[in-house]
Specification:
The complex is a heterodimer of chains A (213) and B (68).
Chain A: H1 17-46, H2 55-60, H3 76-101, H4 105-135, H5 144-171, H6 177-180, H7 182-212
Helix pairs in contact in A: 1-5, 1-7, 3-4, 3-7, 4-5, 5-7
Chain B: H1 3-32, H2 35-67
Classes of the chains: A mainly alpha (213), B mainly alpha (68).
Chain lengths: 213, 68
């Protein structure tokens, strides 16, 4: 039996199966991250001392003088570099999809390879950031702010790793489909591109709300 | 929504983020002479301008690809 609409769009929805599936999945992701962002806003607005480092903890961290904020302990330059990396990766994944549509398989692998490198770079920088926090004995249980910080950035990092696994598969063994079913392969790359853009979009909201405000 | 439309939307949100971070950095510098804030503001405004130019170019290119 042939499954319909794996390649061509269904007339009533205008979407092929995988695209409908990824948008339903992304809708559930919006609710997941939306709930966490809402928790952060409610905790922060409900507790006047949410952002303030207690005096004894500040002393232990070597911070003296006036009151310090938890967000001051986060590395804005590293987070900004990660923002640049993810914006660039969204460009490279679109270029890989466009290359396939132009039937330029070599360019597709080049652009997708760059996207994979960006994902690895992002996780590498995130690992540096986390190790610095752990070296200063800053853990999720240290404060509500750090709990939210590790939950949101950790969940986002898991999404990057998930995307990375699929990107590597499409770059390597999964790319054999290009010879047997090219349009389905183009659709797969588009679907992964939509997911990747969502992950990037989450970071675009995470960066200013957690690191700057 | 296609990848093309979502990409343009993402670039538009990124430009807004750049403007917001640029304003934040400028404010930080004016309030307390924070050099990091000023550096971040300059980089974000340059990035935002670059993304606007890129957004228009990529929209044109991908529209041409749709017509093929």
């Amino acid at each position: 039996m042939q499954i319909p609409y794996t390649v061509e769009a269904r007339p009533d929805t205008g979407l092929y199966n995988a695209k409908l599936g990824i948008w339903l999945f992304l809708a559930s992701e919006v609710m997941l991250f939306g709930a966490l962002f809402s928790s952060y806003i409610l905790l922060r607005t409900g507790d006047p001392g949410f952002m303030t480092i207690p005096h004894d903890v500040a002393e232990a961290l070597g911070l003296h003088g006036e009151a310090h904020r938890w967000s001051d302990e986060l590395s804005v330059p590293l987070a900004f570099v990660n923002t640049l990396v993810l914006i660039f990766s969204s460009i490279t994944i679109v270029m890989s999809w466009a290359s396939l549509r132009l039937k330029e398989f070599g360019k597709f692998r080049l652009w997708l390879g760059l996207t994979i490198l960006c994902a690895l770079g992002f996780m590498g920088i995130k690992a540096i950031e986390y190790s610095t926090k752990f070296a200063h004995h800053l853990y999720p249980e240290t404060s509500n702010f750090l709990g939210i910080y590790f939950t949101l950035t950790g969940l986002h990092g898991l999404h990057v790793v998930g995307g990375l696994i699929v990107l590597v598969y499409l770059w390597g063994p999964g790319s054999k489909m290009w010879k047997t079913a090219p349009q389905r392969f183009i659709n797969r790359v588009e679907t992964v591109g939509l997911y990747w853009h969502f992950v990037d979009l989450v970071w675009i909201f995470l960066f200013p709300t957690i690191y700057l405000l | 929504m296609s990848l093309k439309a979502f990409h343009i939307f993402f670039i538009a949100v990124s430009v807004l983020m750049c403007l917001g971070v640029g304003a934040w950095g400028t404010n930080e510098y004016l309030a307390g002479g924070n050099g990091t804030g000023l550096g971040l503001a300059v980089m974000c405004l340059v990035l935002g301008a670059g993304l606007i130019v890129y957004g228009f170019k990529v929209y044109k290119k991908l529209s041409e690809l749709d017509e093929k």
